[in-house]
Amino acid sequence: PAAAISTMHALLTGRQATARTTSTLLGLFEEAATDYRANPEDARQLADSPRQAAMVVVANAVMNLDGAMSK
Questions:
Q1: Is the separation of the CB atoms in 5 and 17 below 8 Å?
Q2: Where are the alpha helices (DSSP H) in the chain?
């Protein structure tokens, strides 16, 4: 997931994520994935799997960063 998170960050912000940012986002992913594995019905409201639902959470967080491009 770290590579996917780095790519997502680069695509949404136009710059590479720092190691600290990647680590923070990876932690968010792992926490969300754990929660969604424990509650698969919640995951299905966002995506087809707990892993995908966790990536949706990370994408939402990246899109809310000041550096995210909105145009």
A1: yes
A2: 2-13, 19-38, 40-44, 50-63
- pTM for the predicted model, two decimal places: 0.90
34 contact partners, CB below 8 Å, separation of at least 6 = none
In angstroms, rounded to a whole number, what is the distance separating the alpha carbons of residues 26 and 30?
A: 6
Q: Torsion angle of alpha carbons 49, 57, 30, 42, nearest 10°?
A: -50
| pLDDT-based confidence at residue 59 (cuts at 50, 70, 90) | very high
Q: Residue 14 has what DSSP assignment?
A: S
| CB atoms near residue 58 (< 10 Å) | 23
Say how far apart CA 44 and CA 51 lie, in whole Å.
11
Q: Note whether 29 and 57 are within 8 A (CB).
A: yes
